[in-house]
Amino acid sequence: KKAARVNKIRWGEKGATRLEMSKSTGWQLHSCRAFLTGLRKKGDILKEQRSDGRLAYRIVQVVAQPVDAEAVPND
Asked: For residue 2, what is the enclosing H or E element?
């Protein structure tokens, strides 16, 4: 699946640019941008500027917070 391929390349420490995502998946740049927008709305993406000035995107691992047992109502 192409979305899985995009996710895999963005797990790297330096992330991936839209152009790199496009080359990896065969998607057009506007499709990569739409995919990233969906991830951004979920809060799963980090956008960083590389030393060469290009923007790279990578997934942020969301760590689940422990649930406070006293705060959860009993049924």
From this structure: helix 2-10
Do the beta carbons of residue 55 and residue 10 sit within 8 Å? no
What pLDDT, in 10s, does the model give residues 15-69?
888 998 888 888 899 998 998 888 888 877 888 898 999 999 887 765 444 555 5
For residue 55, give the H/E element and its range: strand 55-59
Residue with tokens 């990896």: 24
What's the rounded Cα separation, in Å, for the pair 61 and 1?
Answer: 21
The CA distances from residue 7 to 21, 24, 27, 54, in Å, are: 9, 11, 14, 19
Euclidean distance between CA atoms 68 and 33, whole angstroms: 38
Nearest Cα to 11, choosing from 71, 53, 56? 56
